[in-house]
Specification:
There is one protein chain. By secondary structure, this protein is an alpha+beta fold. Among the domains are: 99-205, Dna Ligase, domain 1 (2-Layer Sandwich); 337-423, Aldehyde Oxidoreductase, domain 3 (Alpha-Beta Complex). The protein has helices at residues 12-18, 35-38, 46-58, 74-84, 92-99, 101-111, 129-132, 158-171, 173-183, 251-268, 302-309, 314-321, 357-366, 405-419, and strands at 3-8, 27-32, 65-68, 119-122, 139-143, 153-155, 201-205, 210-219, 222-233, 240-245, 273-282, 287-294, 337-341, 344-345, 351-353, 371-374, 393-394, 396-402, 422-423. The strands form 5 sheets. Strands 12-11-8-9-10-13-18-16 form an 8-stranded antiparallel beta sheet. The protein has a 4-stranded antiparallel beta sheet with strand order 4-7-5-6, with helices on both faces. Strands 2-1-3 form a 3-stranded parallel beta sheet, with helices on both faces. The longest helix has 18 residues, at 251-268.
Length: 432
């Protein structure tokens, strides 16, 4: 019997990834809330968005599962809608502990204190937030609710702090207002921290090292990590350059991260959901730091898993949503390693040349497995791109497979030469 699966913010690219999962012929995938409403809109009118979702589900002949792979508010909508339709779901309160970075640090301080840096909450609307600051410089300052390093800044002194606060105060409402709306939907608000709101910022000590992401799920209380991917960053230690699978971290380090993930997720009560969790390992001190946790699969990893294991890990999200234990990954991919590369430019410029359709087709003839998603077009300025970090502009996503790490990077550099993307004003030499 066909299973009807509703996907928040479904687009063509992720529909293709969904079709790669085992048993896809038995699924009917339906969009739930348009892509442009969920991904990088000007605002999130949550009452209206939830109304659209509910009306779509009420009109459906059957609702067997509801999934989503985007950040907030998608991740917070899922437990609300699943609860209303009687489907397996994490509690909204446990998801909100993941959504709010300040609340998550409070939970980390209790469950995994050895992995938690010094931190404090900052009210950007405090008339004198500098006077309330107790954390020593340098530190990172970021909104409690955001993604892709949006409004995140390294702070080395008081002037930088005040400038960052001014910018954050102006723009933080994009996520803070819809987050506060979602908090008001929580059935058990007493289970949430009684400090901080969506507009609270997180200031935390600088942590670093080799960064990786754990992909896993919680099934009926059991925490399972099924893959670890390495994240390579640029010299600014903020901008991501590539994600690579499988991880090259020592097995003992990976095991310590998995144990910390288990303790934290049990502490906040997260269940019936996939998750991804980012950790640093500082090789010299052998210190493990927990950066953040997301109650969803990482959409950036979907083509990576398809290349390396034969299927997108949407399979995990589907199985959990249907109340089934996942069987993932399987050794059915075409490449021993796979990666996502994110070429970047570290300064504003006008795009003067992008590859033609014929040139893109020529690249695919040479490297049939490659997926290229350009974020730019000729004539635009990079500063027009949405949802960028504070230090660079991501111009494309490139997914590819290879025999090993060296083969991946050699192939990436060759592809960038073929694409021959050009800019005015700024001439990047190595895209990161």
């Amino acid at each position: 019997m066909t299973k009807h699966i509703f996907v928040i913010g479904l687009d063509d690219a992720h529909l293709e990834e969904l079709k790669s999962v085992r048993g896809a012929a038995e699924y009917a995938f339906h969009g739930l809330v348009p892509y442009e409403t969920i991904v990088l809109p000007r605002s999130y009118p949550m009452e209206e968005i939830m109304g659209v979702a509910r009306r779509t589900l009420e009109a459906a002949p059957a609702v067997d599962a509801i999934i989503g792979h985007w950040d907030f508010p998608t991740t917070s909508m899922l437990p609300i809608l699943r609860r209303e339709w009687g489907l397996p779901t994490p509690t909204l309160e446990s998801v909100l502990y993941c959504e709010n970075k300040y609340w998550n640090r409070l939970a980390c301080e209790q469950a995994v204190p050895e992995c938690t840096p010094l931190f404090q909450g900052i009210d950007p609307f405090n008339p004198d937030p500098l006077a309330a600051l107790v954390l020593e410089y340098p530190f990172w300052l970021k909104p409690s609710v955001a993604f892709s390093s949006y409004l995140g800044y390294r702070i080395d002194g008081g002037t930088q702090f005040e400038e960052a606060i001014a910018t954050i105060r102006e723009k933080i409402g994009l996520f803070a207002d819809p987050f506060d709306y979602v908090v008001r939907q929580a059935p058990h608000p007493e289970r949430l921290p009684q400090v901080g709101t969506g507009s609270t910022c997180l200031a935390e000590g600088i942590i670093g090292g080799e960064l990786c992401t754990l992909e896993g799920y919680v099934y009926d209380g059991e925490v399972v990590v099924y893959a670890i991917l390495d994240s390579l960053r640029g010299s600014n230690q903020v901008s991501f350059l590539s994600y690579q699978y499988p991880s090259k971290l020592p097995p003992g380090v990976q095991a310590r991260m998995e144990a910390a993930a288990d303790r934290l997720l049990r502490h906040i009560g997260l269940d019936w959901t996939p998750f991804n969790m980012e950790f640093f390992w500082h090789r010299e001190s052998d210190k493990v730091w927990l950066l953040e946790v997301n109650p969803r699969i990482s959409k950036s990893h979907c083509p990576i898993f398809r290349l390396a294991t034969g299927a997108s890990h949407h399979e995990v999200a589907i199985d959990i949503a249907l109340g089934r234990r996942p069987d993932f990954p399987r050794a059915e991919g075409s490449y021993p390693m796979a990666a996502k590369f994110m070429p970047r430019v570290y300064g504003d410029a006008e795009v003067t040349r992008v590859p033609s359709e014929d040139e893109l087709a020529a690249v695919h003839r040479i490297y049939p497995e490659v997926t290229i998603q350009l974020h730019i077009e000729e004539g635009m300025r990079l500063s027009d791109l949405k949802a960028q970090d504070s230090y660079s502009f991501e111009i494309a996503d490139i997914f590819l497979g290879g025999a090993d790490e060296q083969a991946l990077h050699d192939k990436f550099r060759e592809i960038m030469r073929y694409l021959d993307i050009r800019f005015s004003d700024v001439l990047p030499t190595n895209y990161g």
